[in-house]
Write a structure and sequence with these properties.
The chain has 144 residues and is mainly α. The chain has eight helices and no strands.
Length: 144
């Protein structure tokens, strides 16, 4: 259903609000020119907001809406526990200790994680440990 007639389902909008910080970070990674101000969303001004994003990114409004729809679905999967990213937060200090034991070259700074920068984080760990990103992801998934 689309109660406010903005071509984005109400379910998608509600999911997006719950995971908004995560989505903002992902949007800023996808479109490096976006700022927090660009991603400030005002209720009832969806069309204006999508128009501003279109102007800033050069993408079509439909492609932006599709990206947010897909990102929202990914964020929902993350919120239900299917992602290493959110699982890590609960026991992060313990996991950091285990990672430092496994890969002795890692420091607390190496293991600092910022929302929306998962790929950069894995790349930093790959550089520091010399292991493939898939191996590192697999270790984190098995550890939780």
């Amino acid at each position: 259903m689309d109660l406010n007639s903005n071509n984005v389902s109400d379910n998608t909008e509600l999911q997006a609000r719950g995971n908004w910080n995560q989505l903002k970070g992902a949007a800023k990674q996808k479109w490096g020119s976006l700022t927090d101000d660009d991603l400030s969303y005002s209720e009832g001004k969806q069309d204006e907001w999508f128009g501003q994003l279109q102007a800033k990114t050069g993408e079509t409004i439909d492609s932006i809406k599709n990206w947010f729809h897909n990102a929202t679905n990914d964020a929902s999967a993350t919120a239900t526990g299917n992602s290493t990213e959110l699982k890590a937060r609960g026991d992060w200090n313990q996991i950091k200790g285990q990672a430092k034991q496994k890969w002795g070259t890692l420091t607390d700074d190496d293991l600092d994680y910022e929302d929306g920068k998962q790929d950069e984080w894995y790349g930093r760990l790959q550089e520091k440990t010399g292991h493939a990103v898939d191996d590192i992801k697999g270790w984190f998934q098995r550890t939780f």
